[in-house]
Amino acid sequence: MLQKTIALLRAMDQTHLIDHIQSLSAEDQAAMAAQIAELDFSVLSAENAAEGRGHFEPLYAAALKNNAENRDIYMKTGLEAIRAGKVGAVMLAGGQGTRLGFDKPKGTLDIGLTRELYIFECLINNLLEVTKAAGTFVPLFIMTSIDNYDDTRSFFEEHDYFGYDSSFVWFFRQEQLPATDPEGRLLLAGPGKIATAPNGNGGWYVSMEKTGILNVIRERGIEWLNVFAMDNVLQRIADPCFIGAVIGSGMTSGAKVVAKAAPDEKVGVICLEDGRPSIVEYYEMTDEMRSRREPDGTLSYNYGVILNYLFRVDKLDETLHVRLPLHRAFKKLRCMNEAGEIVFPDEPNAYKFETLALDMVKLQDNCLAYEVDRSREFAPIKNKSGVDSVDTARALLRENGVIL
Ligand code: UTP
Fold first, then answer.
1. 304 close to ligand 1 (CB < 6 Angstrom)
2. Lowest-confidence region among 1-15, 119-133, 194-208
3. Which stretch of DSSP H or E encloses residue 80?
4. In the chain, where are the structural domains located?
5. Whose CA is closest to atom 5 on ligand 1?
């Protein structure tokens, strides 16, 4: 076994780990060999790397005015689908929140001032508004990383699911991928343990399959999944109007979008790429694309995504076998340094490999871009201070009448 592992490390050009594994006890060597045998090292080759984009064109959105005018009909269709049990919600809560630098699951952060108010609680409160209107709970599937599974689950239990019916909540774990230093060398999390990180938010449907959660979806006859980021405290979950608009449009997916605050705002923008719905990152846009305007004066590439999508389950099933592109993100990762000490760096030190939920949009035949008012639905908490921080989110919550 050891010889096989050493040969593999050599073949992968990870010879710095050979001395390390040889220095371990027989038991620890076996454990490390077993971890190495299980991990997916395809991240080390450029094989699946995200690169090369197609031809971009604008994708027209269902704009705010349209959505306000059709609100009643959208609402009716959406509530009917929820009442018929056809809609489930998937919370992506497996991130490590390294920019925020909070040591526990981000959703357990208390952002209240005069009372306790947790990020997870804000999300459940938003969802409860829908379940009250529908008169039924919406099945809620919470994806965590391997590391934050227990903490997330027990947090919900300790807080009595913030008033949600726990029989409508399922937790599942996403997978991990190895991480490397800037030179492409695998890092160690500790003696005999390769450092890994959650594999990004794009793996959620595959993880639902691997963990058996898709059986719940099938048994319950859920036809639509609303997948969303947990770090936007104004996130509207299972929004009946959004659901109704997508169902009514006959499209197979939908994306909530917000109008850009400025042409150079750093957000991914929904568009068409080679005729399919897609998201172009701000750094992939040319100046011409950034400033192009429609005859009515609006920006042609105007609508930023907020990580709130609606997918049709049968269409997701068709994409289960597709390998999403891997994105490299340079982030902070706790690991063991050469002196054998476990350190959590102040600055990014590791490449993590992630698939992204936004890449799933491109696998859909079409997608309804559904505009929402950013001051009502977009308050992400990403950073310790400045933009998209607890302070900016608190201000937006206050504007929306939430007592802090
Ligand atoms: P981000 O892309 O902001 O990543 O996640 P992050 O790990 O939370 O934070 P940073 O970049 O280290 O500061 C957007 C959403 O996707 C989820 C997050 O929990 C958040 O809801 N996510 C991210 C996952 O569920 N899994 C992942 O592997 C990464």
1. no
2. 1-15
3. helix 71-83
4. 1-38, 39-399
5. 95
